[in-house]
Amino acid sequence: MKQLENYGNEIDLMKYRIEKARSDVKAANVLMGIDDYMGANNRSYYAIFHAISAVHALEGQSYRKHKDTIANFNKEYVKTEVFPRKIGRRIARAEEIRHASDYDDFYIAFMKRFSFMREAMSGQDLVYVSNVDITPNSCITKNVIKAMKENGVKRLISSNAVGIYNEVPGSFGRANRDACDYVWTELLNSEKLVSESEIDYTIIRLPWLTDGEKSNYTVTTRHQTFYGDYISRKNVADLILRIIDNPQYG
C-alpha cells in the first residue's frame, strides 16, 4: 500500500474523498430544500465526482481534469463492467446537467418542458440546440422537433458528438469512441430523430473542446473523413454564427 505524503495511504485518501462526497450530498439536499435547483445540481455532480475520485484513490490514481477523472473511470470500471453501464450514463447525464445549470440560461426550469419550448420558438426562423442530448428516450430532441413543427420553424442546428458516422480514423477515433461508449446509443438516437424529422438541419459534431483562442479550422460533412482532435469553443461559436448568418453554409 502506497504512503501518500501528508495524506496517509490510499485508504485514508479514499475515506477523505468519500467524506467530501457525503458533504456535497448534504449541501445538495439543503439547496433543494430552499428551491435552489442550480446549486443542488452543482453539488450533486460534485458528490459523484468525489465518489469517483475515491475509487481512483484505491489505485493510487489522481487526475487534474474532470474529463480525465470520468473518462478513466469509464474505461477502467464501467467498460469492464466492474460498475454497470447505466452508471456511466448517469454520470454523463449528471455532468451535462451540472454544466447546463452553471452556464445555460433557462435550462433548469425549462429545457425539458415542451410548453416552454413551443412558446420560445414562436416567430423564430432558426433553432440552435447547444446541449448534446443524452437524455433517456431523447426527450430533448423529441420536444425540440415537435415544438419546431408546431411553430412552423424550418431550420435546426443540433449538437452531437464527432464520430457518430464512423468518420474519425486512427487512435483519436478509437479514444473518442471509448470515451462516448456509455452514451453512444443516446447519441445515435438523437441523430436519427433529427435526420428523419423532415426539418432542414445541420448537426454540429463536436470534437473535444478547449478554452483556447479561435484559430483556422476546416468544416467536413458526414461523408468526409474527419481529421483532428481538439477544437476551441470559440471556433465552434464562430461556425454557429456563420450558419445563422447564412443557413446555406451548413
What characteristics describe this protein?
single chain, 250 residues, mainly alpha, three-stranded parallel beta sheet, two-stranded antiparallel sheet, 7 strands, 11% strand, globular
Description:
- The protein has 250 residues and is mainly α.
- Helices cover 56% and strands 11% of the residues.
- Strands 3-4-5 form a 3-stranded parallel sheet, sandwiched between helices. It has a two-stranded antiparallel sheet with strand order 1-2. It has a two-stranded parallel sheet with strand order 6-7.
User: Span between N and C termini?
Assistant: 55 Å
Q: Write down the secondary-structure element order.
A: EEHHHHHHEHEHHEEEH
User: For the CA atoms, what is the radius of gyration?
Assistant: 20 Å
Report the sheet-strand fraction.
Answer: 5-15%
Helix content percent band: 55-70%
Q: What structural class do you assign from the helix and strand content?
A: mainly alpha
Give a brief outline of the structure.
With 250 residues, the protein is mainly alpha-helical. The chain is 56% helix and 11% strand.
Lay out the secondary structure.
Blueprint: E1 3-4, E2 8-9, H1 10-33, H2 37-58, H3 66-78, H4 85-103, H5 107-110, H6 114-121, E3 126-129, H7 139-151, E4 155-161, H8 170-180, H9 184-195, E5 200-206, E6 208-210, E7 230-232, H10 233-245
Parallel strand pairs: 3-4, 4-5, 6-7
Antiparallel strand pairs: 1-2
Helix pairs in contact: 1-2, 2-3, 2-4, 6-7
